[in-house]
């Protein structure tokens, strides 16, 4: 089968499409014929040699995929049958014609959703759902500040905050991105490049600050984050786009607010945790992707690249030019 591949860590130019062995489903695993996958920042880090796949995971890039069930390993419980349209949360291997996945990490493709849209759901939406509900324990009426609001995770988080009857506000680096976040449901947005987001957040919340911060930026934002966190607020760190170094009196500032810092990584969580997360998402969120649902959730696809243009897809994300998800379409081949 064909798969995205690189021989040595480095820039996007190191990527190419290679013929590799088709995987075989193991105990309790399903073989999926991939129609589309999507890019994540983790793919960029892995390509640079800075985020190796967890033990036992495929070393092929790709943390999510959508396609059809093409095979069942021993011990599968009968939840899935050949030909079912599915989307998969993966520890790796999605940017290939076939991938294997534990049956409990699959979700049905919602009615009215294409494989291209479905590929944009698992990693970003499950991450945002996990951060808001499992980690941040979001409550109705709370205000949530979402950094990198126009990112794949950010656009999902905005809609999930609305679904939880809470108020999303965002930061982003361009006016175009802020406009997209407003269309997705953000109540306010601030351009961190030319305005002080902390002042703006305090003005928006009439001085009280936000209940939750979803932060994938890290180091460069720490002081402003603490200044606009409400007393007893939760600061959820799930990425370090600006680095992880902090200089200053972070602990005293945190203590004065009785604030708490939470951190989370999805990829390295165990199989059972991911199964619980997927199950909760299927029950509580998936129905809202279908036409006519209210509110109607939408996976936001920025652009679609065929697998053989994987280099250009990585470049676009590395240059922060995407709004929402970059989807990789697999070559059409008979089974
Ligand atoms: N912990 C987990 O389980 C988990 C899971 C999935 C993703 N993540 C993390 O979530 C983040 C978003 O992922 P994604 O795939 O959705 O990303 P994405 O779509 O590529 O968006 C990332 C955006 O972040 C902004 N950004 C980049 N560097 C920045 C900096 N130094 N300061 C401020 N903003 C910066 C850029 O937008 P602007 O133009 O607005 O600057 C960029 O477009 C990444 O950090 C990723 O590693 C974590």
From TrEMBL:
Q: Which SMART domains match?
A: PKS_ER
What keywords are assigned to this protein?
Answer: Acetylation, NADP, Oxidoreductase
Keyword Chloroplast part of the UniProt annotation? no
Descriptive protein name: Tumor protein p53 inducible protein 3
Source organism per UniProt: Meleagris gallopavo (Wild turkey)
GO terms in the biological process aspect are:
NADP+ metabolic process
**Limits of the Enoyl reductase (ER) domain:** 10-328
Q: Name one Pfam family in it.
A: ADH_zinc_N
Show the GO MF annotations. NADPH binding; protein homodimerization activity; quinone binding; quinone reductase (NADPH) activity
């Amino acid at each position: 089968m064909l798969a995205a591949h690189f021989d040595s860590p480095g820039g996007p130019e190191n990527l190419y499409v290679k013929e590799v062995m088709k995987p075989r489903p193991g105990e309790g695993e399903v073989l999926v014929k991939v129609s589309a996958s999507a890019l994540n920042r983790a793919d960029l880090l892995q390509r640079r040699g800075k985020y190796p796949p967890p033990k036992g995971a495929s070393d092929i890039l790709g943390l999510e995929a959508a396609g059809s069930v093409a095979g069942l390993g021993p011990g599968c419980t009968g939840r899935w049958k050949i030909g079912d349209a599915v989307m998969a949360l993966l520890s790796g291997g999605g940017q290939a014609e076939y991938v294997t996945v534990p049956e409990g990490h699959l979700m049905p493709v919602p009615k009215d959703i294409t494989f291209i849209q479905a590929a944009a759901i698992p990693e970003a939406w499950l991450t945002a759902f996990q951060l808001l509900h499992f980690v941040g324990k979001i409550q109705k009426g709370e205000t949530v500040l979402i950094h990198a609001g126009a990112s794949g995770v950010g656009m999902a988080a905005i809609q999930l905050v609305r679904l939880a009857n809470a108020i999303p506000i965002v930061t982003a680096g361009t006016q175009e991105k802020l406009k997209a976040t407003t269309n997705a449901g953000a109540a306010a947005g601030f351009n961190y490049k030319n305005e002080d987001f902390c002042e703006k957040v305090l003005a928006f919340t009439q001085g009280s600050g936000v209940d939750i911060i979803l932060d994938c930026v890290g180091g460069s934002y720490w002081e402003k984050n603490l200044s606009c966190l409400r007393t007893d607020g939760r600061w959820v760190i799930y990425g370090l786009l600006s680095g992880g170094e902090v200089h200053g009196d972070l602990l005293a500032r945190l203590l004065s607010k009785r604030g708490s810092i939470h951190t989370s990584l999805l990829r390295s969580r165990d199989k059972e945790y991911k199964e619980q997360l997927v199950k909760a998402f299927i029950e509580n969120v998936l129905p809202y992707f279908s036409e006519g649902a209210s509110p109607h959730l939408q996976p936001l696809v920025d652009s679609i690249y065929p697998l053989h243009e994987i280099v250009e897809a990585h470049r676009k994300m590395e240059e922060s030019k995407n709004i929402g998800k970059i989807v990789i379409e697999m070559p059409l081949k008979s089974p």
